[in-house]
Amino acid sequence: MKYDRVLIRYGEMSTKGRNRSKFTNKMKTNIKRLLKDDRIQVEAQRDRMFLYLNGASFDDVKEKLMHVSGIQSFSPVVKTTQDLDEMKEAALSLVEKAMNGKPASFKVNTRRADKQFPLDTHELNHEIGGHVLRETNDLTVDVRHPDFILTVEVRAEAVYLSSETIPGAGGMPAGAAGKAILLLSGGLDSPVAGYMMMKRGVEIEAVHFFSPPYTSDRAKQKVIDLANVLTTYGGNVRLHIVPFTHIQETIHKQVPENYTMTSTRRIMMRIADRIREQTGALAIVTGESLGQVASQTMESMAAINDVTNTPVLRPLIATDKLDIMNIARKIGTHDISILPFEDCCTIFTPAAPKTKPKTEKVQFFESFLDFDPLIDEAVRSTETILLPNNESEMDDLL
Ligand code: ATP
Ligand code: MG
């Protein structure tokens, strides 16, 4: 038995009225880009999408589709002619596959789009269901709460059967809601924040600040690997790596130690805003979560936010750490994030950062220095990498 096509059901986006075709086109592009298989054709219809496999393996496709945002669920489909014996045979092998050697309950759900077909849905359910029940042990019918549903769709050109519905990632297709800049550290939170935004349809450009020689190439590679994982959720990610050493050293010379963290974050925000302007992004996203660390109090966020009018989105603001860690595990960033390579902030973290910094004070400390040329220089020297790149170099480095 070979799957011929995959039926994809849209989630929320099927409710989005006139924007629907924008969403479906975006999803189609994301899927094509992710699958990278010329044999597979994608056809977007109003309320569902079909992938024509043309010989490609469903198992490979399944792994990737499960992560694509905007997909509610999907089902592999077998195609037969209208010959009843052929339909029965396909139904039986689908059921056996769905049972996977274990007892199960099922029901048959038939749709007859071709009204010329001699049997009606009731008779078809009976014919196919009866055949499958006779040929299988440990299978029962349960019309209310079946373990799985065997769907049979009779169309004029062919019959389509399916027994499996795989849940998708939900949300909206990446890129359908515009673009934002993600401040991506090597930590646990910011990759999760990026994922949450992508799931809402936001295209991400990531900005990472690194401070060689205080931070190693491995810390940088870790961030590249994290950004690469994010691309599996449906969009390309451009990663901007900003050299930050000079600025951090300057801050440490200029600003009293308990305010260095606040000031550092403010300069990061200014640089991120410059990159945002250049890339046409509409907002800045961070992994901040209220109360998690010294820099994440409301006073601190106010002092940091003071440098820009750009919306700063904090999707994790009210999420507990344990929940963030669970999402990180689920999306595959956790194990990369916990690798021990320090980022620029860990290394320069003061012993006692101000948890309730005052905006006027940090403005005053910064007023002794013109940061603009330093910011210009950092933006000019930024390295930009387009992801996905498919091999991880992390393995070589470890
Ligand atoms: P994370 O787990 O994301 O590293 P954190 O708990 O370490 O967050 P902070 O160090 O206060 O918290 O950082 C808050 C946010 O600032 C991060 O979530 C990230 O969005 C941004 N950020 C911190 N360091 C960097 C960096 N080196 N490059 C880019 N963004 C950063
Ligand atoms: Mg961090």
UniProtKB/TrEMBL annotation:
It is an enzyme of class 2 (transferase). The keyword Oxidoreductase does not apply. GO terms for biological process: thiamine biosynthetic process; thiamine diphosphate biosynthetic process; thiazole biosynthetic process; tRNA 4-thiouridine biosynthesis. Keywords: ATP-binding, Cytoplasm, Nucleotide-binding, RNA-binding, Thiamine biosynthesis, Transferase, tRNA-binding. Its main location: cytoplasm. It catalyses: [ThiI sulfur-carrier protein]-S-sulfanyl-L-cysteine + a uridine in tRNA + 2 reduced [2Fe-2S]-[ferredoxin] + ATP + H(+) = [ThiI sulfur-carrier protein]-L-cysteine + a 4-thiouridine in tRNA + 2 oxidized [2Fe-2S]-[ferredoxin] + AMP + diphosphate; [ThiS sulfur-carrier protein]-C-terminal Gly-Gly-AMP + S-sulfanyl-L-cysteinyl-[cysteine desulfurase] + AH2 = [ThiS sulfur-carrier protein]-C-terminal-Gly-aminoethanethioate + L-cysteinyl-[cysteine desulfurase] + A + AMP + 2 H(+). Its EC number is 2.8.1.4. It holds the Pfam family ThiI_fer. ATP binds at L183, L184, H208, F209, R265, G287, Q296. Pathway: Cofactor biosynthesis; thiamine diphosphate biosynthesis. GO terms for cellular component: cytosol. It is found in: Cytoplasm. Belongs to the ThiI family. Catalyzes the ATP-dependent transfer of a sulfur to tRNA to produce 4-thiouridine in position 8 of tRNAs, which functions as a near-UV photosensor. Also catalyzes the transfer of sulfur to the sulfur carrier protein ThiS, forming ThiS-thiocarboxylate. This is a step in the synthesis of thiazole, in the thiamine biosynthesis pathway. The sulfur is donated as persulfide by IscS. HAMAP family: ThiI (MF_00021). This is Probable tRNA sulfurtransferase. It comes from Domibacillus iocasae. The gene is thiI.
